[in-house]
Amino acid sequence: MKKNEYIEAKCIDYTHDGQGIVKVDSFPIFVKNMLVNEVGKVKIIKVLKNYAVGRLIEIYEASPYRQVPLCPIFKQCGGCHLQHLSLAGQQNFKTKRVKDTLERIGHCHVGVQPCLMMEEPWYYRNKVQVPIGTQGNTIVTGFYKQHSNDIVPMDKCYIQNEASNQLINRVRILLQEVQETPYDKVTHQGNIRHILVKYAFTTQQLMLVFITYQKKIKKIDYLISTLKKEFPHLTTVIQNINSRHDNVILGDEVKVIDGPGYIEDQLLGNTYRISVKSFYQVNPIQVEHLYQKAIDFAELKPTDEVIDAYCGIGTISLSMAQYVQKVYGVEIVEQAIIDAKENAIRNDISNVEFTCQDAGEFMVEFAKKNKHIDVVMVDPPRKGCSQVFLDQLITLAPDKVVYISCDVATQARDIAYLQEHGYIVDICQPVDMFPQSHHIENIVRLYKQ
Q: What does UniProt give as the signal peptide span (predicted)?
């Protein structure tokens, strides 16, 4: 097989990120935007030792799951991966991906429920952070082209909420008007690096964050007064200063320019304060299904004592509180714990205790108390649970563990370890928190043998 060679091939499977897989004499070729069972003309664009990469040139036999992408820049933008695949096709892909990953990495053969899909899978995100740059003399906002630092200009993102789309467009125009300059990664000149917007679906409150390289923003008072007149739901404006020369988006310094520095949203009957660095699930519609499923799987009792590890601003902790005697929430991000404590007060919930600490260290100290814990709820970052955390979880020996994950591969790795130490997975429910992308949230329940 050679570069620039053309082949006719049939797609037989998907990679973890939704690329089609075709094989020639058992040699795999990864083809972006090709769907299972499709036959087409493929151009080989890269040949490596163990696989090749192809480009789909022409489709001879299309999949019944193929659809026309809603977004006109879908192929250029790196934000979405599966707009060409129908909702039913995405459900099949995500359900199979969870099943295959649990079996391959976790050696876990639990029955996987069909992925819980979103009825209207558009305009669902409550948070957007867009890079800002220039093309010629014009300021542009958008998302990076896949595997590059080139911004694909965008006026409308079909998975972001409409309020955020409109606000970002207006900010871009105003920055051009006041002659504020985007930051240049190469020369380290200019100022505005990203625009971040958070939107509360239930209260309609908007937060605008200017992520800057410099300390000051040109004509910031004019910018704010103009935006607040045009966007009455814009309740707070913040500057985040990031003078680093790397790809980290948020800096350490946060300046509240206008408003309280947070917005409020409601979830499963409780009200939550959301600040710049607070983790809050990006799909507020699906997250209620996700958390309710996790709580249902925990089968909580009024006498239960529960640990909520990696608790963030306390959304799961406070949602569980009404069902149990005590909840212990632990999170390493200080601002998130400040918000969590405030959220408990705001919702008049007194049986939750929040601690700012590494989850593994917290479990070590908790295990020393020889106190029985009935359920541990775990929702870690993408890298999964630390070894220290897992070891102390085994020491605590809760009756049930409910593990929510945004990366089924690290979840499967942790499941394999827990299975070696007496736990069995009996329920698995994927939830599509990220329609149009290959990302997936997954819930499993483990119980002690």
A: none
| Distance, CA of 373 to CA of 109 (rounded, Å) | 27
Residue 381, token pair as written in the block = 């970052």
The residue-averaged pLDDT of 125-151 equals 91
Tell me which of 2.40.50.140, 3.30.70.3420, 3.40.920.10, 3.30.450.20 is the CATH number of domain 6-63: 2.40.50.140
Q: How many CB atoms lie within 10 A of CB 439?
A: 18
Number of Cβ within a 10 Å radius of residue 26: 5
List the one residue out of 362, 422, 354, 410 whose CA is nearest residue 382. Answer: 410
Task: State both tokens at 45.
Answer: 């664009």
Q: At what angle do helices 162-177 and 220-230 cross, to 10 degrees?
A: 140
Residue with structure tokens 């008072």?
221
Give the model confidence (pLDDT) of 329-387 as tens digits. 999 989 889 989 999 999 999 999 999 999 989 998 888 888 889 999 999 999 999 99
**Of the candidates 162, 112, 181, 216, which has an alpha carbon nearest to the alpha carbon of residue 431?**
112
79 exposure class (CB count in 10 Å sphere: 0-12, 13-18, 19+)? buried
CB 38 within 8 A of CB 63: yes
Q: Which CATH number fits domain 91-119+283-448: 2.30.290.10, 3.40.50.150, 3.40.50.1010, 3.40.50.880?
A: 3.40.50.150
Q: Is 202 helix (H, G, I), strand (E, B) or coil?
A: coil
**Active-site annotation holds for 406:** yes
Q: Binding residue per annotation — 331?
A: yes
**Could you tell me which CATH class the domain 127-267 is placed in?**
mainly beta
Identified catalytic residue from 11, 108, 385, 406: 406
DSSP-assigned letters across all residues of 308-367: EES-TTTHHHHHHGGGSSEEEEEES-HHHHHHHHHHHHHTT--SEEEEES-HHHHHHHHH
Q: Is 310 annotated as a binding residue?
A: yes
Q: What is the pTM of this model?
A: 0.92
Percent over 70 (pLDDT), the chain? 100
pLDDT at position 284: 95
Burial class (CB in 10 A: 0-12, 13-18, 19+), 388: middle
